[in-house]
C-alpha cells in the first residue's frame, strides 16, 4: 500500500483532460487508489528495452463506394437532432 | 435533468423470463437462416457485440438505450450458420472487470453457487451457458474475459489468436488486445462455434486467413498421445494451494493418456499485469472518448460550453471502474509520463511475446490454472481495484502475446469450479482444442 495519495489536484487535472466530472468523494477515493496502482506500475521500470518487429502491416484495398448507413439510421440514437444533423452543445 | 446516476437495474431489464441469474440484459429472438451447423441451437451474445435492431448496452448506463443499426460480423456469421440469438448477456461495464459486478444492470449470480460471482467480464455469457439458458454464447476476451468466467462457471471458453476472428461491430475497449471467443458446455461445441465465427473479414483489416476453412470441431478427438505440455511455473506461485492441486490432478490425467508433462519458466510474466493494464487503460482512454452524449448516450441539456457538457454527460453515464481506467489511461499517455508507462509497457509486451515464442520451441502447449483463485463471493472484491487486477495474472499474458488459449473445467474445490488453461502458439487452435478435449471430465 502506498502511504501518500496522489495529489487530488493532479487527479482533477487528468479528469479535466479526459472530460469527466468528478464529485469530491470520487476525487478522494481515486487519489487513494491511484497511488497504489501507480506504485505497482512503477515496476515496469525494470523491463529491458526490447527490439521487436510490429506484427501488423498496412492492408491496402481499392477505394470503392459501398452502401453505408442512411442518414436516418446514423441519427437514430442521437438524443437531439435538427434538420438531419446531430445537435451538440454550444461551442464557446 | 436529474443529477443522480441513472439506474437501469430498476426498470430496463428485459431478459428472458427464465433468467434467474441476471445473465441477460435484453431478451431477443432472432432466427438464423435454414440448415447450418448451428441449426436448432440458441446463441447468447455478449452485450458489447452489435446486434441490428436489438439494444446493445455494454453493461453501461451510457448506452442504456442504444440500438445498433447493423450487425457485428460474428453475429451475421452465427445467423448464416442457422443459430438463433436468444438474448444479450450481462457484462462488466465496457468489459472492465472480472466479476460482472461493475455492470450498470446489476451483478450476475454464478449458477454453480449463487452466492458467488460468475467471473467476468463475459459473466452473463458463461452463466447463461452454465445454467442451460443458451446452448452456446459469444464473449469477448481483452485480458481473460472469456476464460475467466468459463473457469468460474465450469464451462469451456476459447480466446482465439489475435486476428482469427473479426472485431467489426464490437464496441472497442482495447483494440490491440481483444478477440471475440465462444463459450459452451463442451470443447467440441466451443470449437464448432469458433469454426463459424473465424476467418477473414474485409471490414476488419487486422483479420487474417488463419481461420479460413477451419475444422476445429474435428480436433476435439481426445487423443493427446505424444503431446508435450509445459507447466508455466511462474503462474503456479501466486495461485491458491487447492486450485494448484486440482490443476495438477488434471495434468496427471493428461499424462496417463500419453502426454509428456514438463515445466517452463517465463521471466517476463512478472511484468505482464502491469503492462496489460497500462496498455488496456491507454487504449480505453482513447476509445471511450466517443461517448459524449451527441451521437448516442444520455441527453445532455447541460449548462456551459461543450467541454462542460461532455464532462457532465460522462460523469453521469460511466460507472467508477470505467472512470478509473479512462483517467489512469489518460495519465499514462500524458506528456511526461508516456515514456515511463506506455513505452515501457510496450517493451514488456514484446518481451512476453519473445518468451512465449522461445517456450514453444520445446513444447506443444503451455498450461496453468485459468484463475489463481476460486470465484469470490458477490460483493467481496469491489473496493480494492488493484487486488482485482492481480486476479488476472494468468490470463493477460496470452492477450499481450496475441496467442490462442482455452479454459476447460479441471474439477472443483469446495463445490466451486477450477479451470485448466491451455495456451497454444499463434494459430495453434487445433492443438489446444485437442488437448482440452482430452482433459475434459
Automatic annotation (TrEMBL), chain A:
Pfam families per the UniProt record, alphabetical: GatC
Catalytic activity: L-aspartyl-tRNA(Asn) + L-glutamine + ATP + H2O = L-asparaginyl-tRNA(Asn) + L-glutamate + ADP + phosphate + 2 H(+); L-glutamyl-tRNA(Gln) + L-glutamine + ATP + H2O = L-glutaminyl-tRNA(Gln) + L-glutamate + ADP + phosphate + H(+)
SUPFAM superfamilies with a match to the protein in the record: Glu-tRNAGln amidotransferase C subunit (SSF141000)
Domain of life: Archaea
Keyword check for Membrane: no
Record EC number: 6.3.5.-
GO biological process: one example: translation
Enzyme class, first EC level, given as a word: ligase
Protein name (record): Aspartyl/glutamyl-tRNA(Asn/Gln) amidotransferase subunit C
From TrEMBL, chain B:
Keyword annotations from UniProtKB, A to Z: ATP-binding, Ligase, Nucleotide-binding, Protein biosynthesis
Ranges for domain Amidase: 23-432
One of the GO biological process terms: translation
Swiss-Prot/TrEMBL catalytic activity: L-glutamyl-tRNA(Gln) + L-glutamine + ATP + H2O = L-glutaminyl-tRNA(Gln) + L-glutamate + ADP + phosphate + H(+)
Segments for region (Disordered): 1-39
GO MF terms, alphabetically ordered: ATP binding; glutaminyl-tRNA synthase (glutamine-hydrolyzing) activity
Stretch forming the signal peptide: none
Enzyme Commission designation: 6.3.5.7
Top-level EC class: ligase
SUPFAM superfamilies in the cross-refs: Amidase signature (AS) enzymes
Entry annotation: catalytic residues: 46, 121, 145
Role: Allows the formation of correctly charged Gln-tRNA(Gln) through the transamidation of misacylated Glu-tRNA(Gln) in organisms which lack glutaminyl-tRNA synthetase. The reaction takes place in the presence of glutamine and ATP through an activated gamma-phospho-Glu-tRNA(Gln).
Protein family membership: Belongs to the amidase family. GatA subfamily.
Subunit (UniProt): Heterotrimer of A, B and C subunits.
PANTHER family: GLUTAMYL-TRNA(GLN) AMIDOTRANSFERASE SUBUNIT A, MITOCHONDRIAL, TRANSAMIDASE
Protein name: Glutamyl-tRNA(Gln) amidotransferase subunit A
Amino acid at each position: 500500500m502506498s502511504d501518500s495519495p496522489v495529489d487530488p489536484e493532479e487527479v482533477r487535472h487528468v479528469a479535466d483532460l479526459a472530460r469527466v466530472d468528478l464529485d469530491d468523494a470520487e476525487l478522494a477515493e481515486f487519489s487513494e487508489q491511484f497511488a497504489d496502482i501507480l506504485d505497482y506500475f512503477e515496476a515496469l521500470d525494470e523491463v529491458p528495452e526490447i527490439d521487436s518487429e510490429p506484427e501488423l502491416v498496412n492492408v491496402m484495398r481499392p477505394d470503392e463506394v459501398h452502401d453505408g448507413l442512411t442518414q436516418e439510421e446514423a441519427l437514430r440514437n442521437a438524443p437531439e437532432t435538427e434538420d438531419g444533423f446531430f445537435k451538440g452543445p454550444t461551442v464557446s | 435533468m436529474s443529477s443522480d446516476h441513472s439506474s437501469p437495474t430498476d426498470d430496463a431489464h428485459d431478459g428472458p423470463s427464465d433468467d434467474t441469474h441476471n445473465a441477460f440484459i435484453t431478451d431477443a429472438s432472432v432466427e438464423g437462416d435454414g440448415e447450418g451447423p448451428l441449426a436448432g441451437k440458441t446463441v447468447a451474445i455478449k452485450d458489447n457485440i452489435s446486434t441490428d435492431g436489438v439494444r446493445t448496452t455494454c453493461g453501461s448506463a451510457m448506452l442504456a438505450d442504444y440500438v445498433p443499426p447493423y450487425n457485428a460480423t460474428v453475429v451475421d456469421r452465427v445467423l448464416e450458420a442457422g443459430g438463433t440469438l436468444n438474448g444479450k448477456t450481462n457484462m462488466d461495464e465496457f468489459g472492465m472487470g472480472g466479476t460482472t459486478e461493475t455492470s450498470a444492470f446489476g451483478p450476475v449470480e454464478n449458477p454453480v453457487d449463487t452466492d458467488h460471482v460468475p467471473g467476468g467480464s463475459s459473466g452473463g455469457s458463461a452463466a447463461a451457458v452454465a445454467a442451460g439458458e443458451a446452448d452456446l454464447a459469444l464473449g469477448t476476451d481483452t485480458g481473460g474475459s472469456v476464460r475467466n468466467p468459463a473457469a468460474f462457471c465450469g464451462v469451456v471458453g476459447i480466446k482465439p489468436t489475435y486476428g482469427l476472428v473479426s472485431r467489426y461491430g464490437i464496441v472497442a475497449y482495447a483494440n490491440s488486445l481483444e478477440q471475440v471467443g465462444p463459450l459452451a458446455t463442451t470443447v467440441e461445441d466451443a470449437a464448432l462455434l469458433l469454426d463459424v465465427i473465424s476467418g477473414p473479414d474485409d471490414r476488419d483489416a487486422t483479420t487474417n486467413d488463419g481461420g479460413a476453412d477451419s475444422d476445429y470441431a474435428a480436433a476435439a478427438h481426445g487423443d493427446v498421445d505424444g503431446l508435450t505440455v509445459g507447466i508455466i511455473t511462474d503462474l503456479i506461485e501466486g495461485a491458491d494451494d487447492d486450485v494448484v492441486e486440482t490443476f495438477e490432478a488434471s495434468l496427471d490425467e493428461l499424462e496417463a493418456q500419453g502426454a509428456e508433462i514438463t515445466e517452463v519458466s517465463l521471466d517476463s510474466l512478472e511484468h505482464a499485469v502491469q503492462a496489460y493494464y497500462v496498455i488496456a487503460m491507454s487504449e480505453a482512454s482513447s476509445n471511450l472518448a466517443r461517448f459524449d452524449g451527441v451521437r448516442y448516450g444520455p441527453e445532455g441539456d447541460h449548462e456551459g460550453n461543450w467541454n462542460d457538457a461532455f464532462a457532465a454527460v460522462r460523469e453521469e453515464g460511466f460507472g467508477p471502474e470505467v472512470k478509473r481506467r479512462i483517467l489512469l489511461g489518460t495519465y499514462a499517455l500524458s506528456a511526461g509520463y508516456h515514456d515511463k508507462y506506455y513505452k515501457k509497457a510496450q517493451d514488456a509486451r514484446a518481451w512476453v511475446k519473445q518468451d512465449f515464442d522461445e517456450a514453444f520451441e520445446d513444447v506443444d502447449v503451455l498450461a496453468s490454472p485459468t484463475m489463481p483463485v476460486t470465484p469470490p463471493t458477490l460483493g467481496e472484491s469491489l473496493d480494492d481495484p488493484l487486488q482485482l487486477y492481480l486476479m488476472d495474472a494468468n490470463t493477460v499474458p496470452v492477450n499481450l502475446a496475441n496467442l490462442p488459449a482455452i479454459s476447460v473445467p479441471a474439477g472443483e474445490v469446495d463445490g466451486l469450479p477450477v479451470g485448466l488453461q491451455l495456451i497454444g502458439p499463434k494459430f495453434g487452435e487445433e492443438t489446444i482444442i485437442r488437448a482440452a478435449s482430452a482433459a475434459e471430465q
